[in-house]
User: What shape does this take?
Amino acid sequence: MSPRPGVPTKLIRPLNRAFFARDPRRVARELLGKVLVRAAEPGGAQESGTPGKTRLTARIVEVEAYLGERDPAAHSYAGRTARNAVLFGPPGHAYVYFIYGNHYCLNVSCEPDGVAGGVLFRALEPTEGIEEMARNRGVELDGKKELQKKFCAQLTSGPGRLCEAFDVTRARDNGGDLTSSAGSLWIGDDGYHARGIRLTPRIGITKAVDRPLRYILSGSPCVSGPKKLAG
DNA sequence: ATATCGATTATCT
DNA sequence: GATAATCGATATG
Assistant: This one.
Protein backbone atom coordinates (compact mmCIF):
# COMPACT_ATOMS: atom_id res chain seq x y z
CA MET A 1 0.00 0.00 0.00
CA SER A 2 1.67 3.18 -1.14
CA PRO A 3 1.39 6.45 0.77
CA ARG A 4 -0.61 9.27 -0.86
CA PRO A 5 -0.46 12.96 -0.12
CA GLY A 6 -2.72 13.96 2.72
CA VAL A 7 -3.14 10.41 3.96
CA PRO A 8 -1.35 9.36 7.13
CA THR A 9 1.39 6.89 6.31
CA LYS A 10 0.77 4.88 9.45
CA LEU A 11 -2.38 2.98 8.79
CA ILE A 12 -3.90 1.28 11.80
CA ARG A 13 -5.41 -2.08 11.02
CA PRO A 14 -7.77 -3.74 13.49
CA LEU A 15 -6.62 -6.95 15.17
CA ASN A 16 -8.75 -9.93 14.21
CA ARG A 17 -10.76 -12.16 16.48
CA ALA A 18 -8.27 -15.04 16.29
CA PHE A 19 -5.70 -12.76 17.95
CA PHE A 20 -7.84 -12.73 21.08
CA ALA A 21 -8.97 -16.37 21.00
CA ARG A 22 -5.86 -17.45 22.90
CA ASP A 23 -4.37 -17.65 26.38
CA PRO A 24 -4.56 -14.19 28.00
CA ARG A 25 -0.81 -14.29 28.73
CA ARG A 26 -0.05 -14.59 25.03
CA VAL A 27 -2.58 -11.91 24.16
CA ALA A 28 -1.22 -9.58 26.86
CA ARG A 29 2.35 -9.89 25.64
CA GLU A 30 1.38 -9.28 22.03
CA LEU A 31 -0.90 -6.33 22.86
CA LEU A 32 2.11 -4.29 23.99
CA GLY A 33 2.87 -1.77 21.26
CA LYS A 34 -0.58 -2.06 19.69
CA VAL A 35 -2.97 0.89 19.57
CA LEU A 36 -6.25 1.62 21.29
CA VAL A 37 -8.55 3.71 19.07
CA ARG A 38 -11.60 5.76 19.96
CA ALA A 39 -13.28 6.66 16.68
CA ALA A 40 -14.06 10.27 15.91
CA GLU A 41 -17.67 11.11 16.54
CA PRO A 42 -19.46 12.68 13.61
CA GLY A 43 -21.34 15.87 14.21
CA GLY A 44 -20.39 16.96 17.67
CA ALA A 45 -22.24 19.94 19.01
CA GLN A 46 -23.49 22.51 16.53
CA GLU A 47 -23.88 25.04 19.32
CA SER A 48 -21.46 27.32 21.05
CA GLY A 49 -18.33 26.42 19.14
CA THR A 50 -17.81 23.04 20.76
CA PRO A 51 -15.47 21.24 18.35
CA GLY A 52 -16.51 17.92 16.86
CA LYS A 53 -14.73 15.08 18.59
CA THR A 54 -11.53 13.94 16.98
CA ARG A 55 -10.10 10.45 16.86
CA LEU A 56 -8.18 9.36 19.95
CA THR A 57 -5.31 6.91 19.71
CA ALA A 58 -2.71 5.70 22.20
CA ARG A 59 -0.11 2.97 22.29
CA ILE A 60 -0.56 0.15 24.78
CA VAL A 61 2.38 0.05 27.21
CA GLU A 62 1.04 -1.86 30.23
CA VAL A 63 -1.49 -4.71 30.55
CA GLU A 64 -2.33 -7.54 32.93
CA ALA A 65 -3.50 -11.07 32.13
CA TYR A 66 -6.41 -12.58 34.06
CA LEU A 67 -6.69 -16.29 33.52
CA GLY A 68 -10.33 -17.10 33.98
CA GLU A 69 -11.88 -19.65 36.28
CA ARG A 70 -8.55 -20.92 37.64
CA ASP A 71 -7.20 -17.49 38.62
CA PRO A 72 -8.25 -16.38 42.12
CA ALA A 73 -7.58 -12.73 41.27
CA ALA A 74 -9.88 -12.74 38.24
CA HIS A 75 -13.49 -11.60 38.23
CA SER A 76 -14.34 -14.83 36.45
CA TYR A 77 -12.98 -16.98 39.30
CA ALA A 78 -16.36 -17.57 40.93
CA GLY A 79 -18.03 -18.45 37.65
CA ARG A 80 -20.29 -16.62 35.28
CA THR A 81 -22.45 -13.79 36.64
CA ALA A 82 -24.36 -10.96 35.02
CA ARG A 83 -21.42 -8.62 35.55
CA ASN A 84 -18.63 -10.79 34.15
CA ALA A 85 -20.57 -12.47 31.33
CA VAL A 86 -18.48 -10.80 28.63
CA LEU A 87 -15.36 -12.58 29.91
CA PHE A 88 -17.07 -15.91 29.14
CA GLY A 89 -18.31 -14.82 25.73
CA PRO A 90 -16.61 -14.53 22.35
CA PRO A 91 -13.07 -13.09 22.25
CA GLY A 92 -12.22 -9.53 21.32
CA HIS A 93 -15.02 -7.84 23.22
CA ALA A 94 -14.83 -5.09 25.85
CA TYR A 95 -15.42 -6.00 29.48
CA VAL A 96 -15.91 -2.74 31.37
CA TYR A 97 -16.55 -2.71 35.10
CA PHE A 98 -16.98 -0.02 37.72
CA ILE A 99 -14.69 -0.08 40.74
CA TYR A 100 -14.27 1.71 44.07
CA GLY A 101 -17.33 3.81 43.39
CA ASN A 102 -15.25 6.05 41.15
CA HIS A 103 -13.62 4.43 38.19
CA TYR A 104 -14.12 2.27 35.15
CA CYS A 105 -11.62 -0.34 34.01
CA LEU A 106 -11.32 -1.76 30.48
CA ASN A 107 -10.53 -5.36 29.57
CA VAL A 108 -10.66 -7.34 26.37
CA SER A 109 -12.10 -10.86 26.47
CA CYS A 110 -9.78 -13.70 25.47
CA GLU A 111 -10.00 -17.44 24.82
CA PRO A 112 -12.63 -19.06 22.58
CA ASP A 113 -16.34 -18.48 23.21
CA GLY A 114 -17.37 -20.22 26.42
CA VAL A 115 -13.94 -20.02 28.08
CA ALA A 116 -13.23 -17.17 30.51
CA GLY A 117 -10.15 -14.99 30.29
CA GLY A 118 -9.20 -11.39 29.76
CA VAL A 119 -6.56 -8.70 29.61
CA LEU A 120 -6.80 -5.48 31.65
CA PHE A 121 -5.51 -2.27 30.08
CA ARG A 122 -3.36 -0.46 32.65
CA ALA A 123 -1.49 2.26 30.75
CA LEU A 124 -1.25 3.89 27.34
CA GLU A 125 1.00 6.40 25.63
CA PRO A 126 -1.17 9.03 23.92
CA THR A 127 -0.53 9.56 20.21
CA GLU A 128 -3.53 11.37 18.69
CA GLY A 129 -6.11 13.59 20.38
CA ILE A 130 -4.06 14.53 23.43
CA GLU A 131 -5.98 17.75 23.94
CA GLU A 132 -9.29 15.97 24.05
CA MET A 133 -7.88 13.38 26.44
CA ALA A 134 -6.81 16.24 28.69
CA ARG A 135 -10.32 17.70 28.54
CA ASN A 136 -11.82 14.33 29.38
CA ARG A 137 -9.45 14.02 32.33
CA GLY A 138 -9.98 17.58 33.49
CA VAL A 139 -6.28 18.48 33.43
CA GLU A 140 -4.74 21.68 32.07
CA LEU A 141 -2.08 21.33 29.41
CA ASP A 142 0.42 24.13 29.61
CA GLY A 143 3.16 24.62 27.07
CA LYS A 144 6.26 23.56 28.96
CA LYS A 145 7.81 20.42 27.59
CA GLU A 146 8.85 19.01 30.93
CA LEU A 147 5.32 19.25 32.13
CA GLN A 148 3.95 17.96 28.84
CA LYS A 149 5.69 14.71 29.52
CA LYS A 150 4.31 14.52 33.01
CA PHE A 151 0.81 15.42 31.93
CA CYS A 152 1.09 12.91 29.15
CA ALA A 153 1.65 10.23 31.74
CA GLN A 154 -1.11 11.69 33.88
CA LEU A 155 -3.64 11.30 31.10
CA THR A 156 -3.49 7.56 30.52
CA SER A 157 -1.24 6.07 33.23
CA GLY A 158 -3.49 3.75 35.22
CA PRO A 159 -6.61 1.76 34.35
CA GLY A 160 -9.06 4.33 35.71
CA ARG A 161 -7.27 7.24 34.11
CA LEU A 162 -7.12 5.74 30.64
CA CYS A 163 -10.83 5.01 30.75
CA GLU A 164 -11.54 8.60 31.66
CA ALA A 165 -9.23 9.86 28.89
CA PHE A 166 -10.99 7.67 26.31
CA ASP A 167 -14.42 8.26 27.81
CA VAL A 168 -14.90 4.54 28.40
CA THR A 169 -18.03 3.74 30.40
CA ARG A 170 -19.90 0.57 31.07
CA ALA A 171 -23.13 1.86 29.57
CA ARG A 172 -21.41 2.82 26.35
CA ASP A 173 -18.68 0.23 25.88
CA ASN A 174 -19.31 -2.97 27.83
CA GLY A 175 -19.77 -5.85 25.42
CA GLY A 176 -18.63 -3.86 22.39
CA ASP A 177 -16.62 -5.55 19.65
CA LEU A 178 -13.01 -4.32 19.70
CA THR A 179 -12.02 -6.02 16.44
CA SER A 180 -13.94 -3.77 14.04
CA SER A 181 -12.68 -0.40 12.88
CA ALA A 182 -16.33 0.43 12.19
CA GLY A 183 -16.93 0.37 15.93
CA SER A 184 -16.50 3.23 18.37
CA LEU A 185 -13.67 1.59 20.30
CA TRP A 186 -11.20 -0.87 18.78
CA ILE A 187 -7.64 -2.18 18.91
CA GLY A 188 -5.24 -1.94 16.00
CA ASP A 189 -1.73 -2.56 14.73
CA ASP A 190 0.25 0.23 13.09
CA GLY A 191 3.37 -1.84 12.51
CA TYR A 192 5.17 -0.70 15.65
CA HIS A 193 7.60 -3.28 16.99
CA ALA A 194 7.48 -3.55 20.79
CA ARG A 195 10.85 -3.83 22.52
CA GLY A 196 11.82 -4.18 26.16
CA ILE A 197 8.93 -6.27 27.45
CA ARG A 198 9.13 -6.99 31.20
CA LEU A 199 6.95 -9.03 33.52
CA THR A 200 6.02 -8.12 37.10
CA PRO A 201 3.35 -9.14 39.61
CA ARG A 202 -0.08 -7.60 39.09
CA ILE A 203 -1.14 -4.46 40.92
CA GLY A 204 -4.03 -3.85 43.29
CA ILE A 205 -5.00 -7.47 43.93
CA THR A 206 -5.07 -9.48 47.15
CA LYS A 207 -5.08 -13.02 45.76
CA ALA A 208 -2.44 -14.75 43.63
CA VAL A 209 -0.30 -11.67 44.24
CA ASP A 210 3.01 -13.20 43.21
CA ARG A 211 2.23 -14.44 39.73
CA PRO A 212 4.11 -12.38 37.11
CA LEU A 213 1.17 -11.54 34.87
CA ARG A 214 1.71 -7.81 34.39
CA TYR A 215 3.35 -6.94 31.09
CA ILE A 216 5.05 -3.58 30.55
CA LEU A 217 7.19 -1.83 27.96
CA SER A 218 10.10 -0.86 30.17
CA GLY A 219 11.19 2.71 29.68
CA SER A 220 7.80 4.10 28.74
CA PRO A 221 7.13 7.23 30.82
CA CYS A 222 3.46 6.29 30.98
CA VAL A 223 3.76 2.98 32.83
CA SER A 224 1.76 3.14 36.09
CA GLY A 225 2.52 2.00 39.60
CA PRO A 226 5.51 2.35 41.91
CA LYS A 227 8.89 3.04 40.33
CA LYS A 228 10.11 -0.24 41.71
CA LEU A 229 7.84 -2.00 39.23
CA ALA A 230 8.25 0.49 36.41
CA GLY A 231 10.95 -1.55 34.68
C1' DA B 1 10.06 8.68 47.59
C1' DT B 2 6.77 5.95 50.21
C1' DA B 3 2.65 5.56 53.18
C1' DT B 4 -1.94 6.22 54.44
C1' DC B 5 -6.60 7.46 53.80
C1' DG B 6 -11.22 9.00 52.02
C1' DA B 7 -14.36 8.92 48.17
C1' DT B 8 -18.41 6.27 46.46
C1' DT B 9 -21.23 2.31 44.37
C1' DA B 10 -21.96 -2.30 42.06
C1' DT B 11 -21.70 -6.76 43.37
C1' DC B 12 -21.77 -10.68 46.12
C1' DT B 13 -22.12 -13.16 50.91
C1' DG C 1 -22.52 -5.53 55.45
C1' DA C 2 -17.90 -6.14 53.32
C1' DT C 3 -15.11 -5.76 49.63
C1' DA C 4 -13.08 -4.06 45.37
C1' DA C 5 -8.14 -5.38 38.92
C1' DT C 6 -8.27 2.93 41.69
C1' DC C 7 -7.19 7.81 42.20
C1' DG C 8 -5.87 12.03 44.28
C1' DA C 9 -4.68 14.43 48.28
C1' DT C 10 -2.11 14.76 52.36
C1' DA C 11 1.49 13.46 55.58
C1' DT C 12 6.11 12.17 56.65
C1' DG C 13 11.29 10.74 55.83
